[in-house]
């Protein structure tokens, strides 16, 4: 529409009429003369408004979702942090339970052998002190630890103390090639010397070349003079292989140690030797052999083939 005198006059007239209708509607209240027109307009334009509202609502919901997503992300992050903290706490509890169990086993061995021990935790491993297989424990001279003391855990012989500081000590493990300990066979008096071979089985040289030894026999420490470096009766291992004697003066055995030298945490240092040799009392109970199930097969004799043919005829 062009901007002419007539168009401006029409615009003023429409505005004046609109204000007049608004004034009449307000003054009329519920009995407004334009109420019928309003309802007719609602009837015509209502469905269109609903359709437009339905089309706009998903967008509004999406906007609301984006607006709230930050809060949900924060809640999720908080839950993840709480979960991680719980897992760390659970892991700590598991480790503490494991250490408590190891300490209980060490105390059990000490009670069976009547060893006076000082509990210790391993704080380092490796060859820093010049040995191939060593550990560092968190007790030292201030705790009554001395050189050439026996070290054990709940499974058996771990090693011997070689170096002592004020607060720490170094232990040479029993599987080190420089390690040697006197041994005695279970339920017998066959003596020998066990030596470490790194990650291989312990090698034991029996003094009696004709000794009757079989797989599964077990060994304990024989003990040293004045109980240093070894106290008697500490479990060493189980025979896994026996070399033929061949008329030699000694007999060679290969022994699987009771202790797993790659899984050490809590150990005990024997600070007081037993008054009497515990002999074999510290050895664990032998597992009972699993009975072999017996299967009985009953064979039912079948009728001869010829007899079957005659019956069919």
- Oligomer classification: single chain
Amino-to-carboxy terminus distance: 117 Å
The helical percent reads 25-40%
The description of the largest β-sheet is: 6 strands, antiparallel, barrel
% residues in beta strands: 15-25%
Low-confidence runs (pLDDT<50, min 5 residues)?
Answer: 41-60, 62-69
Rg, alpha carbons: 46 Å
Strand-pairing-aware structural class? alpha+beta
Number of strands: 12
Q: List the strand order in the largest sheet.
A: 1-2-5-4-3-12
SS summary, helix count: 3
Overall 3D form: elongated
Mean pLDDT: 78
Order of helices and strands: HHEEEEEEEEEEEEH
Family: Belongs to the MreC family.
Domain Rod shape-determining protein MreC beta-barrel core: 130-270
Protein name: Cell shape-determining protein MreC
Function: Involved in formation and maintenance of cell shape.
Task: Identify the notable features of this structure and list them briefly.
alpha+beta; 23% strand; six-stranded antiparallel β-barrel
What features would you describe in this structure?
Residues 130-270 form the Rod shape-determining protein MreC beta-barrel core domain. This is Cell shape-determining protein MreC. Keywords: Cell shape. By secondary structure, the protein is α+β, with helices and mostly antiparallel strands. Helix content is 35%, strand content 23%. It has helices at 5-28, 35-113, 305-312; strands at 116-125, 134-137, 150-152, 157-164, 169-173, 180-185, 191-195, 202-206, 218-221, 235-242, 251-257, 266-272. A 6-stranded antiparallel beta barrel has the order 1-2-5-4-3-12. A 6-stranded antiparallel β-barrel has the order 6-7-8-11-10-9. The chain is elongated. The N and C termini lie far apart (117 Å). The model is unreliable at 41-60 and 62-69 (pLDDT under 50).
